[in-house]
Each structure stands twice: as structure tokens, then as C-alpha cells.
Design a protein that fits this description.
mainly beta, ATP Synthase, domain 1, 6 strands, 78 residues, 0% helix
């Protein structure tokens, strides 16, 4: 799946990912390839990404929203 993590200032991540784990307001949410469409609000915490090379990336956010649609994940973060 394709993932973009964007802040008002810069792009934190853009590329293919195997797994994304975000701090949702109702609890942590994991997203894999072919996930059902979803929109979720995010709280402060850590976004975990495993890219296609099996490397893990960690990003601290203060909140935001995530949209999953058509095998693409967009995280708009503060």
C-alpha cells in the first residue's frame, strides 16, 4: 500500500509500506494492504511504519486524521 504522512510544514514519509500503526482516539489502529476504507481521528502518540524493506520508522505526532482508501493511506498530522 502507498503511505503519506504529512504535517503543515513537511512530508514525513512517502512511499510503499507493509504496515502502519497509528494512535487513534479510540485506541491503536493497524492498517495492512487492502484494508477497508476508513477515516479516523488521531491523538498524540507514535506512528509506526514498516516499509517494504522491513525497516521500521517511528514518527511522533500531536494528533490529526487518517484516511484509508483504495490501498492508499494518508495521515495528516500535527
Amino acid at each position: 500500500m502507498y503511505l503519506e504522512i504529512l504535517t503543515p510544514d513537511k512530508k514525513l514519509f512517502s512511499g510503499d509500506a507493509e504496515y502502519v500503526d497509528v494512535p487513534g482516539r479510540a485506541g491503536r489502529t493497524g492498517v495492512l494492504k487492502n484494508h477497508a476504507p476508513l477515516i479516523s481521528s488521531l491523538k498524540a502518540g507514535q506512528v509506526k511504519v514498516r516499509d517494504t524493506a522491513k525497516k521500521e520508522h517511528l514518527f511522533e505526532i500531536k494528533g490529526g486524521i487518517m484516511e484509508v482508501r483504495n490501498d492508499k493511506v494518508v495521515v495528516l498530522a500535527e
